[in-house]
Amino acid sequence: SKGGGSMGENGCVSWKFERKGVIQFSKEKYTEDQLMEAALEAGADDLRDEGDVWEIQTAMADFNAVREAFEAAGLEMIHTYSLIHDDLPCMDDDDYRRGKYTNHKVFGEAMALLAGDGLLTLAFEVMLEQKNVPPEVLVEVVREVAMCAGNFGMVGGQALDLDAEGKQISEAELRKLHSGKTGAMFIAAVRGGAHLAGATNELLALTHFADLLGLAFQITDDILDVEGDPAEMGKSAGSDEKKHKSTYVSLYTLAGAKALAEKTVAEALECLDSFGEKAEPLRRITKMMCGRKS
Questions:
Q1: Structure confidence by residue, pLDDT tens digits, 258-289
Q2: By three-state DSSP, how is residue 133 classified?
Q3: How far apart are the first and last CA of the chain?
Q4: Rounded to an integer, what distance in angstroms lies between the CA atom of residue 228 and that of residue 222?
Q5: How far apart, in whole angstroms, are the C-alpha atoms of residue 55 and residue 59?
Q6: How many other C-beta atoms are found inside a 10 Å radius of the C-beta of residue 230?
Q7: Which sign, positive or negative, has the C-alpha torsion 150, 184, 232, 118?
Q8: How far is the C-alpha of 224 from the C-alpha of 212, rounded, in Å?
């Protein structure tokens, strides 16, 4: 295999997927490992070249002088699995992701489903390979990731999103939906880095920051769905309106949503005031929110 996902000499799965651009696999010759690798290299809804959840976790690592990137890799695997499944015909039924055909359009629905399953399970194996961390801390990090990715977080939010199609929901209901579907994984990334660094008193401020960061990301996503350039986004615009979904734009208007995004970014930055220069990587990511194009 050109990247990760293959069995090494020691019998362990290699997870270090090299980012060398898009790998094109023929339909006649591929494995589930290659599907997983292709999905990770293709990218996702992101902070453009910044790497999304991976970048947030890496920023936390820099912020706290934690060198290992095992949790960051695991989080990006969970993120990518969720996008493979989200694009399936039974979910959002999308044909494009980052300007390329979605996984199921290339490899078929069954193999795409298995690639997502493989990434989800591999993620937890990878995270538990983290070295030089007290076992009780590592268990807590992985437990929180599982909670944020499951029915109390991302999966639960996705279920609410499907149920809300064709309905006009309230602001409180929309906030709850996106706190799970989008915000929970931001919280997992930030809190995970904090736990690994031994943070205790800082957790409340960082959790609030992560929640606001996820909200800003989602509001901007809603804005891009209305006025974004499909060529830059790598996917079609206007999907929310076609599916009659409630969004921050439909609730607040386009101008109102932009103002709310700016306000949310400002509030997120305030949460980092007490951390000084060490939080600069997180500030950089936060400031990108309102200006991102994809």
A1: 999 999 999 999 999 999 998 999 999 999 87
A2: coil
A3: 30
A4: 9
A5: 6
A6: 14
A7: negative
A8: 18
